[in-house]
Fold this sequence. Notes:
Elements: E1 2-7, H1 14-25, E2 36-38, H2 54-57, H3 64-76, E3 79-86, E4 93-99, E5 105-110, E6 116-117, E7 120-121, E8 135-138, E9 141-145, H4 154-162, E10 167-172, H5 180-195, E11 198-203, E12 214-216, E13 222-225, E14 231-236, H6 239-248
Parallel strand pairs: 1-2, 2-3, 9-10, 10-11
Antiparallel strand pairs: 1-14, 3-4, 4-5, 6-7, 8-9, 11-12, 12-13
Helix pairs in contact: 1-3
Protein name: Hydrolase
InterPro entries: C-N_Hydrolase, C-N_Hydrolase_sf, UPF0012_CS
Family: Belongs to the carbon-nitrogen hydrolase superfamily. NIT1/NIT2 family.
Amino acid sequence: MHVALVQRASDIDSAANRDSITKQLSELAPEDGLDLVVLPEAAMHDFGAPDHDLAAVAEPLDGPFVDLISAEARRLGATIVAGMFERTDGLPFNTLVVIGPDGELRRTYRKIHLYDSFGYKESDRMRAGDVEPVVLDVAGRAVGLMTCYDLRFPELARDLVDAGAELLVVPAAWVAGDRKLDHWRTLLAARAIENTVHVVAAGQGGDRYTGHSLVADPWGSIVEEADNGSAIIRATLAAADLAQARDVNPSLTNRRIRHSS
């Protein structure tokens, strides 16, 4: 599987974001043979200040942001995962949309764990999605979806793997701060190691967020990583690498404690 992670810093101007996303994605071409392109959480519109009304800027699943991502997915012949704020009758969802190579909306994932931590309360501005792990097929590989703060809950990653996921996709807007980069890199590597899966994580960059979008292999080694600026990183994820890791390290099959849902 050929993947590209698009690191960017979103604005609170949705139209400006669409323009900058179009410009950044123009660096990718159909000839690149990409299977999967991942944009960060809140790619549609930045969270803004705590009093910024996200319900007022949230969009429906057939709005201009999804239209743009659909057009780019068709152009590239790739599946694109991107984060948006999805309009509801009340507080919006923090949603990942998955657009197939045909430009059609394939799945959504509504963030389960809202970021009520480190002095912030996302639940004042968003509603949580149902506890329903989302796994889908992309180019013959089973892909599980997580968003940012979900990363701190290993049980979600394990549920995704139990549902067949061989690759975890983690769009994020990981707020910068003391020890936050260490947490980001360590938790991504841990999810890869304990589940023997590839992990691809596309983060927001810039002054407010940690950046460091990265790809980890099933051994937990970071094989590609950005810094904090605007960037596109690429990687090839081989199914054989995952099979070898699970053969040498069969920790999933050696489990003796399993939770029941």
